[in-house]
Amino acid sequence: MGFRGNSHCLWDEDLIKLVTRNLKPSDKKRIIDHLLACSFCRRKFLSLLDLQHYLNSRFAADKSLFSSIEFGEVKEKARFEIQKLEKQRKPSSPEAKRRPVSFRWGVGVAIFIIFLAGVWWLFWPRQPQPAYRSSSSDSIVILTPAGKIAAPPEEFRWQSFAGAKAYKFELIDKTLKIIYSQKTFSSSLILPAPIRAELQRNTTYAWSVEALDADEQKLATASATFQIK
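Below the sequence we write its predicted structure tokens.
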């Protein structure tokens, strides 16, 4: 898994691979763990998901175009040109015979990744990436809740972080949807009763907290998961 140089934010390619389900299980887990803790990367990931859903809906709406006679002729011509090129290659080994297929697959994936990255670059709001301040510790100490608990949690607590003027709290479900988000000036937060009532048993939830300085730049972050028995 790649990072954007400062070991905090993911490379855009990692987010795109997660959207296209082109990841090893170990890499997928590490990227999701990062998304649970990093609201900046999570917003980019959700933006890519929205783009994917939009493209899927457009394809479904224009299905008649792709099944038209004219489009069928274009496909046939393209297939004929590919067959001509493959005959000209005359592969001399089993490895070479497999190369055209893997090559076309690789080119297709590369074009799709470049396309998604380009559209994201055009439509993502331009804003400076939060500056991460170095400190003796880049992680907040989580106190409670964590692990398996008997009832929906009422209070979330963590240790105060040096230099923090405020904290940003987020409660997240297993689909990475933010259930509740709140800014607080103390090292604890009371979850509103209506939100508590929505939490289900035998379901894993994650929560994250970011320490912010006077300019609302992120100093540190931490996250934990819990499951209601």
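The helical segments are 12-19, 25-37, 39-61, 63-66, 69-89, 94-123, 193-198.
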